[in-house]
Structures are given as C-alpha cells and as structure tokens.
Recover the amino acids of this structure.
C-alpha cells in the first residue's frame, strides 16, 4: 500500500467507519476527531500536539510511514472490537454504576 493509499484509509477509518461503528455499538467515544486524537496519540507515543505541529493541518499527514501504518493498524483492529459492556444510563463504567458507589 502506498503512503497516499494508507493516508486515505486512515481518513476513511477516522471520518466514517469508526464513528459509525461506535454509534451502532453505543461506544463512549463516537466523534471522528476523538478517534483521530486517540490514533495520533498512539502513533507518536504521547500527546500528538507535543510531537506534531498543531498549526499544520492535517496532523495525520505529519506522521512518518511507520507511525501512519501503526495508526491504521490500530484503527482496523478497533473497528472490529465487540461493543463494550456498559450502559451510559448506569454511569458509563464497564461494570455499570459509578465507581465507588453501590447499586440500589
């Protein structure tokens, strides 16, 4: 896959596939920019804005080939994860309810 193809795949995943899967699965994170930030953070091994130039857009275009491939690989794995076992109405934790509080 060429770099242009890899970057196009990154955009498809961040802009469309991950948010759609998140809405269908009722994931906590559903916004495209949130997925972008998560993938960028993972790719650079820290906060993306501490490593990449915030003024140059898009930030994903600043990733080197290995970082971009890692971001796409994580996105591909993530889109196939099962829906998390939680309920927003019950506090959004994996077990339900708020941490440190007992269910009534």
């Amino acid at each position: 896959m060429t770099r242009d193809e890899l970057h196009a795949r990154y955009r498809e995943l961040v802009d469309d596939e991950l948010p759609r899967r998140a809405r269908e699965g009722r994931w906590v994170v559903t916004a495209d920019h949130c997925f972008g930030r998560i993938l960028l953070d993972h790719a650079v091994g820290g906060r993306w804005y501490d490593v990449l130039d915030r003024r140059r857009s898009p930030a994903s275009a600043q990733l080197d080939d290995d970082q971009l491939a890692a971001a796409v690989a994580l996105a591909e794995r993530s889109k196939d994860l099962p829906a998390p076992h939680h309920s927003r109405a019950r506090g959004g934790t994996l077990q339900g309810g708020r941490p440190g509080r007992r269910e009534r």
